[in-house]
Structure formats: structure tokens, C-alpha cells
Amino acid sequence: MISKSHITQRFISYVTVDTESDPNSDTTPSTEKQWDLANQLVQELKDIGLEDVSIDENAYIMATLPSNVSHEVPTIGFISHFDTSPDFTGANVNPQIVENYDGKDILLNKENNIVLSPDYFEDLKQYVGQTLITTDGTTLLGADDKAGITEIITAMEYLIQHPEIKHGTIRIGFTPDEEIGRGAHKFDVEKFNASWAYTMDGSQIGELEYENFNAAGAVITIKGKIVHPGYAKGKMINSMYIAQEFINSLPKLETPEHTSGREGFFHLYQTSGKVEETTLHYIIRDHDKTKFEARKKTIEDVVETLNKKHGAATVTAVIKDQYYNMREKVEPVMHIVDIAEEAMKSLDITPIIKPIRGGTDGSQLSFMGLPCPNIFAGGHNFHGRYEYVPVESMIKAVAVIVKIAEITATKNS
Ligand SMILES: [Zn+2]
């Protein structure tokens, strides 16, 4: 229904604009250059015929496709983000198009011998015969999440051109700074005014997600006592050794490298230490709320034990919750997941429903009052030089958006 060249052209017109976000900036958007694509998108939304196209002072974009039925249909939304990850450069993206992929190695960059190989990236094998868009090996691609933007705009354009497809009011929202965890925090849920929404920000075709981690960060500070090492007997307290005790007191197999599925973990991601003071930075993750709370309690218990042994206030922990599992907000309105699942099945896409081992903007939005599961955008290997997206997956995502709109209108007629 959508031509490959049309959607490819649109996608390339976005990924060739650098929109890398910056966690060290306090502004929104975090980088000035995100305005370049934001302004381009606003113009395009007007050009295809959407209404109420708006961009606010923080570069959040919203627009409306009005209902074309006379009965009441809940307003639904589709959301994606236009920034790219600071993990890898997004400047001078030079997309390569691999038509009729033969299932073999793809040479991304001859000069540096950078190869995208199905031996390592096995998912490639499911796209034999399809058209892939890759990088030239020197940048990320930005399919995360410009594939999502491409799909939403293309779906709206398709609905405008096909008034015989019946739908209710559809709202679309594009945000900056998702990659630095700030995509949702200035999102005006009230102004968006939808009953529910979907982020188009998942990876491979079929992904449908409504569960993510509960998340907290913990900073552990350990105080020591510095004394001249030659005269330290019975006096020196080396905070690094106490830090070691702390690390050894947490369950050794409950770390990212030993867990998968719904298993939670403690992740020590940064340490700095001298004799006088050592700090340990952890993140704590668990899908299950009770186990999540128990993990935080474990940290507090270890702190207490070590303080009993080494003296009061030797070890302190500051634990801060970061985000929660959206499941508790989505489960009471489970039909919004069912509609997406039904849409995929009617298009011969096998839904892959699994818990996200991370967070999404949708989880924050769900807790802000906008239940928001996540749907595939089609790309693979995000945040790096091996990122790629099959054009066929983007076209399928467009079809899913159109179908969700259609089902929502008929379910409520
Ligand atoms: Zn993303």
C-alpha cells in the first residue's frame, strides 16, 4: 500500500539531519540542532494536511488528524522521538540502501573494513530478499526513532488520502531528548488530550510491550580514615576495603550479565575510591514491584550490618526511584494492548509480547495519565554503527498504525 521509495526518501530526509541529544545540557531540547529537524517536521505535518500543528518552546510537536465518523470514538495517540543517542555520533549520517538482501555479509565501510554480518547479528537472516537501510559504518543510523516518526507521518498521510478508512480523532506527538531520559518529562498530557497512545519506538517487527522495569538508583558512600601508612596500625580505615565488603554482600548472580526475562538485578556501574572515601553507583531493576522494594531493603540492610561492624555512619546509601513498570497502568485498560495485537495479527505479523528490560517514554507517560504501550518501529542494533532497518518493516508499522485507528473506530461504533 505504501511505496518503498516514498517511505525510504522520507526516512532519509530525517536521518541526514543530526539530532544527537546531550545528557550534560540543562536546556530542552538539550541540543540546539534538534530544532532543525523539529521545524522541518512541523512544516511537513502542515503540508500533508494535519490540523492543530503546534510546537512549544521545548520543541514538543503535536498535531491532529480529525475524526471522519459521526459516532463517538476515543481519541488515540502515536508518539515517537526525534533525537538520537549520544552513545554514538549522529553527524553526517550517510545511509546505504541494500536492495534484495542476499543473506550474506554487508560491507558497510571498505576503508575501515566494517562489516555487518549475519554470523554475529543473526536477526539479519529473517530479512533475506528485503530492502535494508544501513549506515556507512561511521555513525549510527537513527532508525531509533526516526523510523517511528517516518511511520507515523506516513500513516497519517495515508489516512488523509484514503477517507474511506474510518477512524476517530488521532493525535500525534514528537518529542526531543528521549535518549537522555527526558522525552516525557515536559510532555503536556492534558494538551495532548488522548485516551491512550502508543510509542512507535520498539525494535524488530512484531514487538509489542507494556511491561518495563521498576527502576531506582543508589549511591553508596563509605567513609575511611587516612593515616600515614608507616604508622597506621590500628588507626587507618581503608574505605575501599569496606566497599569491597559491600559489593560482596549483594547476591553475586543478580547482575545484568547473569539475568534475563523477568529477572531483576543490582548493577554496579561506577566506582571511585581513595582511602578516605569510596562511592559506589548502582542501579536497581525489577519488573516485580514487591521484589523491587525488597532489593532496596537489601541495600539498606547491608548498610546497617556494615555500620554495626565498622561504626555508625561509616556507610550511607541514597536511594532514588527513577521510573516504574507501566504494567500497573496498562492492565486496567488492557483493551489498548488487545487492539494492537489484533491489528498485527490481521496483517500477518506475529506479535512478540515481552517485558522490556529497560524503560520507555511510554512508562513515564503512563504514570502521567496517558497509558502508552510500545510498538515496533522496525530497526535493529540501536545506538551504534551496526544499526539498520528493513524498509518492509517500516511499511508494516505504517499498516499497524492505520489498522489500530480502524479497529478503534469500529470497536466503538
Ligand atoms: Zn528510541
Structure description:
- The protein is 31% helix and 22% strand.
- It has 413 residues and is α+β, with helices and mostly antiparallel strands.
- The protein has 2 domains: 4-211 and 326-411, Zn peptidases (Aminopeptidase); 214-323, Alpha-Beta Plaits.
- The longest helix has 22 residues, at 289-310.
- Zinc ion binds at residues 81, 144-145, 178, 201.
- Cleaves the N-terminal amino acid of tripeptides.
- Its cofactor is Zn(2+).
- Its EC number is 3.4.11.4.
Set out the fold topology.
Elements: H1 4-15, H2 34-48, E1 51-55, E2 61-65, E3 76-81, E4 96-98, E5 106-109, E6 114-116, E7 132-134, H3 143-161, E8 170-175, H4 189-192, E9 196-202, E10 207-209, E11 214-223, H5 239-249, E12 265-273, E13 277-286, H6 289-310, E14 315-323, H7 327-330, H8 335-346, E15 352-353, H9 361-367, E16 374-376, E17 388-390, H10 391-411
Parallel strand pairs: 3-8, 3-9, 9-16, 10-15
Antiparallel strand pairs: 1-2, 2-8, 4-7, 5-6, 7-17, 10-16, 11-13, 11-14, 12-13
The structure holds zinc ion.
Give the key terms:
globular, four-stranded antiparallel beta sheet, ArgE/DapE_CS, eight-stranded mixed beta sheet, 17 strands, Alpha-Beta Plaits, alpha+beta, Aminopeptidase, binds zinc ion, 413 residues, protease, 2 domains, Peptidase T, 10 helices
